[in-house]
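1st attempt posting a full record on here, be nice pls
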Amino acid sequence: MRASIATALIGPFILACCAQSAIADTRAEADQPNIILLMTDDQGYGDLGIHGNPVLQTPHMDRLAQGGAAMTTFFVGPVCAPTRAGLMTGRYHYRTRVVDTFKGRAMMEPDEDTLAELLRHAGYSTGIFGKWHLGDSYPMRPNDQGFDESLVHRGGGLAQPSDPIDNRDRYTNPVLIHNGHEIQTRGYCTDLYFQAADRFITRAVHQNRPFFAYIATNAPHGPFHDVPAELYEKYRAMDLAPVLLGQAESHDQVARIYAMIENIDRNIGRLLATLHELDIERDTLVVMMFDNGPNTRRFVGRMRGMKSELFEGGIRSPFYIRWPARLKPGTHNDRIAGYIDVMPTLLAAAGVQPPDDLDGRSLLPLLEARQPVEWSDRALFLQVHRGNAPIRYHHFAVREQRWKLVRPSGFGRSEPPENVSFQLFDMTHDPFERHDLAATHPDIVQRLKTAYDH
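the predicted structure (as tokens):
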């Protein structure tokens, strides 16, 4: 967290007094909600029943979506760590030192003000369960960055090079990191995260403290060898042709992915039941979103694209937010929004003043509006590719409400090929990006390039 020299010199006495004051103020603030942020890994926009998937069964996610409000044109990064950095800071990931997903390029600058830090300073009990992917060593670990409680894996996922050697690529009975220490667990990884979150939530309620629970599953990210067996057999026996986009060879892999997603859905059902049993549904804000597009080329509605790509199917995520105390179910807003808006939105809900240097803005005025509100148009910038630093115009997109400029030069390349052209789409009249208008609207192309440059 960024702090002044004066703050560092004042010492622990005043800091402790401030913390106790914040907790007291929080307990007195009746409308300060509990917050649950749910984010899955590599689940695509089309991987929900409510989004028209004809095969996958997600009744609890669908119920959560139907019971809340939504931003219907919501964007995330093409890959995971950039989204996570922006989610935690409200700033574009390149500002945070996160430029990629591996080889030391996903270590967030420790001085960033994080959502967890700011909520903890406001009296919240803070916990993370699942995937962090912003640094595994001091001072970048979750417990160094504002989380009181953490049960996570290292790096970008289980069965990756950062895994403890003893884990042996397991999703079942994995070695996880609990508050900085390796522990041997028993159970399937997703179940373990939700069980730990349940205990954390219950404890916070009994302590009469508001809580922030960040539940970020590594499923349905690969590898796919260790998935819930019962659900795998269910989907393996089904006709998946409607979601495979002609790629019959991916039947087994998608069956495994859907097994992981339905397992997440069942856990969300149990989580919602816990909120009901604890009688905190009304005052608990629950957000559901995904970190990037799907990890195979499969159903994404009528959009095109997948993880790592800049077409809508690779960067669109649901953003459902249920808060019975303040948000009317079924409220939908189509203004463009993105992962950088999550932090300011949740801080606004908690009554916490955001830092001055955020790129995002609170979405609450749009979500709470009973009538139209003033909301200036803006551009969102999306870019990520392999390498140590961003290269101008390499694998990037600029998205306004109507226009989208994209240069899909390849996430996997550290240098862009020379022959990749800019593409321009009128998203109002061509929401599925079928007609490139760059040649007929060079003025708009130049305007969006200029916006990117500044």
